[in-house]
TrEMBL record:
This is Phage gp6-like head-tail connector protein. Transmembrane segments: none annotated. Pfam families: Phage_connect_1 (PF05135). The lineage of its organism: Bacteria, Bacillati, Bacillota, Bacilli, Bacillales. It comes from the Bacteria. It comes from Lysinibacillus pakistanensis.
Amino acid sequence: MEKLLDELKEYLRIDGNDEDRSLSTFLQTAISYLENAGVKQPSDYYLTVNDKEVFAQHRLAIMMLTTHFYENRIAITPSTIKTAQQTIPYGLQSIILQLKWVNPDELSQQQ
């Protein structure tokens, strides 16, 4: 998880460790969200075969969703629910649909 956190901080352009606790929570929540959406997570997000990162798309989905959680940390009240609530970006929805059909174990063995 530490490696994912470091990549997330680079993705968000965050220096220092001040927000590590919140970022770790958002990161774990994003992974759980994807799992609950039917995306199976690989055991090694950084598997590389023939200089190709096999699970880069999984990591990108995690980074995009974590960024969404990070940037939309506002309190939702009944009066602000329609204007304050931000939907998940379309590009991320497309990636999730693609990843639902990926079996990471099979993909790891094919490489």
